[in-house]
From TrEMBL:
The keyword Amino-acid biosynthesis does not apply. Coiled coil: none annotated. The keyword Transport does not apply. Keywords: Copper, Metal-binding, Oxidoreductase. Residues 39-141, 180-281 form the Plastocyanin-like domain. Gene3D superfamilies: Cupredoxins - blue copper proteins. It comes from Clostridium manihotivorum. This is Copper oxidase.
Length: 300
């Protein structure tokens, strides 16, 4: 099972061999920092939306309700689905979901295990940047070597109503068309409000990274080297993997990295762009930043 810190997994009901999920596209209030909320769009009460976990060969039905004021859609990013289910209504026979209506996306999971995303693909420059996205993981039921498996979705927002250098509680509008971002998040939270990734010494750890927004983010780990094991949901053969400590996650990409826990401590895991390690340019560290925390070995 994949753990998505600060988010929940999307539940389902299985009926006659089909897994039925429900997604609700709606206005949400997301708490980036204690008491600081943004008025965004998301699914089932949050942005990113809940993480979907399925298996190869599953027959799935995603009923998507639209509680927004304009039509929307859902695109299954990286999945090989029938064209009517791909969710790009401006160029495909896949329909728009009008306000107050729903649509059933129904297909078989034909891709192998890997990390993918889902997001709107209608009026994308507004709807995606308002937060309509989430993670979709195709699980590997035969993976016995991974001890802990985490998913992190990267986001950025232009929060209005806060002068540069100021962070204070409140509920704030966001500007989806601005390129002047001032808050950067992992799974919808900014440091130090992000939940640490807990590990124990001697474990094999996988971290999955996804990005469906505007900027690219070079994500860097401290105290360890990782192997890049998958790109866009496609496993990289072991002989072709790179050993790195920084991986650039461009818009539209997912990457899986794996490392062995052999260096106890509290280790940063963060975007390396300095601007992205702040909360509206305030001190000290903030933004797209979390920590990897060893829970079983005293710190030295």
């Amino acid at each position: 099972m994949v753990i998505t810190p600060d988010l929940h997994n999307l539940p389902y009901k299985e009926i006659k061999g089909v897994k039925y999920f429900e997604l609700v596209a709606e206005e949400v209030e997301r708490e980036l920092l204690p008491g600081l909320f943004i008025k965004a769009w998301g699914y089932n009460g949050s942005t990113p939306g809940p993480t979907i976990q399925v298996c190869p060969g599953d027959y799935v039905n995603f009923r998507v309700y639209n509680k927004l004021s304009e039509p929307t859609s859902v695109h299954w990013h990286g999945l090989d689905v029938p064209v009517v289910m791909d969710g790009v209504p401006d160029v495909q026979p896949s329909p728009k979901i009008e306000p107050g209506r729903y649509f059933d996306y129904r297909f078989k999971i034909v891709n192998p295990p890997g990390t993918h995303m889902y997001h709107t693909h209608h009026i994308s420059h507004t709807q995606q940047m308002m937060g309509l996205m989430g993670g979709l993981i195709i699980l590997d039921p035969y993976d016995l070597k991974t001890d802990r498996d985490y998913f992190i979705m990267l986001q950025e927002f232009k929060v209005e109503g806060l002068p540069m250098g100021v962070v204070k509680p409140g509920k704030y509008e966001i500007d989806p068309h601005s390129h002047d971002f001032n808050f950067f998040t992992m799974n919808g939270r900014a440091f130090p409000f992000t939940t640490p990734l807990e590990v124990k010494c001697g474990e094999n750890i996988k971290i999955r990274l996804g990005n469906a927004m505007e900027n690219g983010h070079p994500i860097h780990i401290h105290g360890h080297q990782f192997m890049v094991s998958a790109a866009d949901g496609n496993t990289i053969e072991p002989r072709n993997r790179m050993r790195k400590n920084t991986i650039h996650v461009a818009s539209g990409e997912t990457w899986d990295v794996e490392f062995f826990t052999n260096n106890p401590g509290i280790w940063p895991f963060h975007c390396h762009i300095p601007h992205h390690m702040t909360n509206n340019m305030t001190k000290p560290t903030g933004g797209m930043f979390t920590t990897i925390v060893y829970k079983d070995v005293p710190m030295k």
